[in-house]
């Protein structure tokens, strides 16, 4: 194992919502929170029985969700009156903050549904701020090219390209990396203290180490990356600065203390979570 790679992990099968089958990559026994990343799920199936029940109305408080779709269509509706459909290549950002109730339901009855949902923590100072939501189609996400290589900037800023999704306090960065097979793609380090790479398709050679589909690696903050595609290898890069605060979680509520969790539950039961 190279000094660049600090650990190698695989997700586990899981279910969420009304029975949607998925792979839980972050926040599972082998890989817990990766501050500020609380959870990363990949959902991928062309069997409607695996996804058709979707994620009926449910609450959140204290963090941000980011949904990035590779294939398929998912509709969002929430208690603030927001409504939109995220489609292939698009991203959806929701700041739950002090509270929101939302539903995410498939807008298709057949075909491939493939994407990711990422939970990003908020610092204590922002957990009880106003909720927000935005939907971005594929054409709104900037693309950086290096020869035949392609890098989609889903969140943050890279090589002068600024994505519409930002979390500047943590210097959040999310890249969809699509290297060519003919040459190496070289990515400079942005010196994030938390840096993760997840291979979602094919295989990749990373600085001389072969990674296969379904592998996540923790990376050091300093080394540049040299990536080459094998079997149409593609990956998601996540990077950010840790918040460094206590995390208290109960299901869809993520706060700093158990008392704040109890308050979130009480607010939800009293129908004032999102007020």
From TrEMBL:
InterPro entries in alphabetical order: Pirin, Pirin_C_dom, Pirin_N_dom, RmlC-like_jellyroll, RmlC_Cupin_sf
**Family the entry assigns:** Belongs to the pirin family.
Please provide an example of a Pfam family that matches this protein in its UniProt record.
Pirin
Protein name, please? Pirin family protein
Which positions bind Fe cation?
Answer: 58, 60, 102, 104
Where is the signal peptide, in residue numbers?
none
**Which coenzymes or cofactors are required?**
Fe cation
Query: Is the Metal-binding keyword given for this protein?
Result: yes
Write out the coiled-coil annotation as residue ranges: none
Q: What is the lineage of its organism?
A: Bacteria, Pseudomonadati, Pseudomonadota, Gammaproteobacteria, Alteromonadales
Alphabetic keyword roster: Iron, Metal-binding
Ranges for domain Pirin N-terminal come to 21-120
A Gene Ontology MF term for this entry? metal ion binding
Bound how, and how many: what does the cofactor note say?
Binds 1 Fe cation per subunit.
- In this chain the Pirin C-terminal domain maps to 175-273
Q: Could you tell me which PANTHER family the record lists for this protein?
A: PIRIN, PIRIN-RELATED
Q: Which organism is it from?
A: Pseudidiomarina taiwanensis
